[in-house]
């Protein structure tokens, strides 16, 4: 919200400076996003009254004769340039907004200066017409800056809990609580006993719990005085006319939006109801809107018939808008159901100053005072006569007292604020404090956010200043059920550290995937899509990590042409089981390019290297790895393995399918992806045997297609309890073996834990191996 | 004899290798060596002469032996020297290029933060990234249609109602979203555990937001939650103070200002004075756990047949963005680098152990 310093200072006269204000507001919970110095109106811009306006034939321009202390003639193209209005006139030689004004001849007419639009004067965005003032706003020729001084505006953030601070008075009340004195605007209103020419029916009291309608007539609609226009411009609004400006001004002052309907368009009165099927309304912005059955509307009625004239709390209708010839208005000041307003505003994509405030909530008893404030200004600035009677529907909800213990405040804050200080703060904030010990504190009605004792505690701390709360550390033993809860996290972290130690570079990729790309990666369509993705390529949640790694590799290759890469990511993926989300943590690794070796020599790479690294990783965790051939659609059918860790199926390892590589224009890449957590094996310490080893070698001849894993498993199983280790050291094909055969040679180490093995025992084991091999139809090499 | 001596010593001096030396040894001192034969011949000489010649021959023998020994030593040394020379390598050539790994800078920053809080007795736990509306919003006192919801631009999953595991593994139904903050873990953790405790929750969070140099739709937060009897806002300030001191040393300070988050009361935003950069860093939000959050937790526990464990306790919570700190810590100019995946960026953080 934009806070003009001088306006706020008019209610809080002791305010030192905009800088001090910024600091005070920060301490109160209102952060300043930006401070802006505006309205540097040069001395060569003067107030002038338009005496005559003559069209220049053949053009849309006008020749204006102005009283600017002296008579001046200028040319203007503005549509609203006309006799009788006051304008801002830049005299020749003045520089406004970077534009140097000179005497110019336009269409054969000499222009001795320039009548300015708000944009040209640099006070607002509007450039579609002249800035218009009342004809007697200032003595002609007066430098405009005298009545329109500089301003400093703080653009502050008002959090949703403080709708009261969406009015400048709300901030003034907060500053008052800090110790500043406060001057509230005086409301002087003369009313007459006049019969009301309209009625009021609220058909939907839930939508409009409190609704008031006042009558003002005899209005003279025209431009607002300079001070009022200045405030509106400073707040970022465009002045329209005195009547509209006053409703906006009071809204900015009290956070209470209101609307004036031209009485000519309300019929016999106003009806507040939900929209009917097929109803339409042209709103003030000129847009015809189809109303929704849940939209709360302000309707005019004639007998049984009614017709919408405003979208309640959001925007008025175009037809009933106050215009130049409006003489009488019905002034609506109401409280609406925040949720209903929010839904309507969203539905119509209309976020107005009014809806913004209503959906956050307005002071439930603030309607009548706000109406009176607006009526008194209408009386003073637009010559209005005001009827004494006000139509009112619904009863405002009075705030409820909150039990409050100063001791609890200190307990929650860790402070020792004296009771007297605390109660003083609450009183200065406008609370009524009753009772003793256990107090009953009734907050002012504008403070919708104060409901609980804790809310009051925050008020104490806020006004005392958070800096007055000391620093402390709590000491306690956690409840037993919290012990060890960090284990999964710490374990995962160690996995990352371990992988990075083995040479893997960690990367992060987005949790999204392109649903259209699932088929490219030969994956089923992702089960979870976003309702509101940032872009179509990020429209689904990933089911695997490897597509992200491949994409990342591709981008790196395009940019930096690395010769090799070894990457990993630990991240969440999202599967589906029935209606359930199955969120899992995966660990994926990728190996690409030149492998391990001398830069000037041969390299080890590809599948064996990645598998070796995976083995090292798992072995370091004390875990056993087994990979068996299994076709995964996204892997090369010949290099595709299922990974078992300690007998649990954990994922896959292999070469990326050539089709995928082709589509992504990638060279061969090997990947693995496991789901975490990995099994944890309890440590079982074994005293290493000190007895001598018995070493044997064994070469097994098997058919070519027999996997190593099968041979190894058989040997392990058949060798008996004393086989300490088994290691392949040769893999051979060719003569003298027959075609279609291969030989796998193993080193075997036998050892007994408690004594020296006898030769016969080892030979026995070897014999068992041989029998087992032969029973499978395999043999040994002689 | 003089001649023999000169010839022998010269030959030994000039022997080219151990083999030659061996031959020379045989020639002079061998069974049939020249000197040996002279010795044998002594027996035939008269006593006087034998004595004199014997002494001379012995002296000669010793001289030859000494010479042989010296030469042998020199030759062995020479041989070794040559062998070593033959094995000389260009030590300046590079070694086998093993892969050099590294951790992502967010992992590193997260680890640093978690370690700081671990030293204060906090434990790190994690929660799901796909969350239900209930845990992300409602239970945190952010009801539907409340303007406070606007504070979190949310990615919603398609479909009206789905299930996911609740804090106790039970089925939790509702509209699903990508969690907008790590705060739902406050509720999940409290439902499943009893106070007192101290936890931090690091994790990935999501905001429906266009990205630029300082905004990412996906980023990381660290949430803290301490609940127990007599936990105060002073404790919250103390925790953040410890964080500041650990991050930026003894000159660092903390600043707290009121702010609104629906799930804390009083609520605060906090900044840390960064001595090196000489400025306040707005790091995150914090506050005392809102009674309505405790109430929601107790009600949830009750619905699962658990006793209400959150009556008569207070707690504080805080949350901060990890990217922001990492950017400052490592001088990273653009938040998009973290998910940019460029290895030339990531590899620069190897020096951090």
- Largest interface, with Cβ-Cβ < 8 Å? A-B, 94 and 95 residues
Number of domains of chain B: 2
Secondary structural class of chain B: alpha+beta
Give the biggest beta sheet of chain B.
7 strands, mixed
Which fold does the CATH topology of the largest domain in chain A refer to?
Phenylalanyl-tRNA Synthetase, Chain B, domain 3
Q: What's the helical proportion of residues of chain B?
A: 40-55%
Q: Count the strands of chain B?
A: 11
As an assembly, this protein is heterodimer
The CATH class of the largest domain in chain B is identified as: Alpha Beta
Question: Are there runs of chain A of 5+ residues with pLDDT below 50, and where?
Answer: none
Strand fraction of chain A equals: 25-35%
The fold-level CATH name of the largest domain in chain B is BirA Bifunctional Protein, domain 2
Distance between the termini of chain A: 92 Å
Shape assignment of chain B = rod-shaped
Low-confidence segments of chain B:
none
Strand order of the largest sheet of chain A: 29-32-33-39-38-37-36
The secondary-structure element order of chain B is: HHHHHEEHEEEHEEHEEEHEHHH
Indicate the mean pLDDT of chain A. 94
Give an account of the 3D structure.
Chain A has a seven-stranded mixed sheet. In chain A, strands 13, 15, 16, 23, 24 and 25 form a six-stranded mixed sheet that branches. Chain A has 782 residues and is an alpha+beta fold. Chain A has six domains: 2-39 and 152-177, Phenylalanyl-tRNA Synthetase, Chain B, domain 1 (2-Layer Sandwich); 45-148, Beta Barrel (OB fold (Dihydrolipoamide Acetyltransferase, E2P)); 191-393, 3-Layer(bba) Sandwich (Phenylalanyl-tRNA Synthetase, Chain B, domain 3); 402-468, 2-Layer Sandwich (Phenylalanyl-tRNA Synthetase, Chain B, domain 1); 487-676, Bira Bifunctional Protein, Domain 2 (BirA Bifunctional Protein, domain 2, 2-Layer Sandwich), CATH 3.30.930; 694-780, Alpha-Beta Plaits, CATH 3.30.70. In chain A, helix 10 packs across helix 12. Helices cover 25% and strands 30% of the residues of chain A. In chain B, the strands form three sheets. Chain B has a seven-stranded mixed sheet with strand order 1-6-7-11-10-9-8. Chain B has a two-stranded antiparallel ribbon with strand order 2-5. A two-stranded antiparallel ribbon of chain B has the order 3-4. Chain B has helices at residues 2-14, 18-29, 34-42, 47-86, 105-118, 133-136, 184-192, 233-248, 291-303, 322-330, 337-340, 343-346, and strands at residues 123-124, 130-132, 162-165, 171-174, 176-178, 197-206, 218-228, 254-258, 264-274, 279-289, 314-321. Chain B is α+β, with helices and mostly antiparallel strands and 353 residues long. Chain B has two domains: 2-86; 105-349, Bira Bifunctional Protein, Domain 2 (BirA Bifunctional Protein, domain 2), CATH 3.30.930.10. Chain B starts with a helix and ends in a 7-residue tail after the last helix. Chain B has twelve helices and eleven strands. Classes of the chains: A alpha+beta (782), B alpha+beta (353).
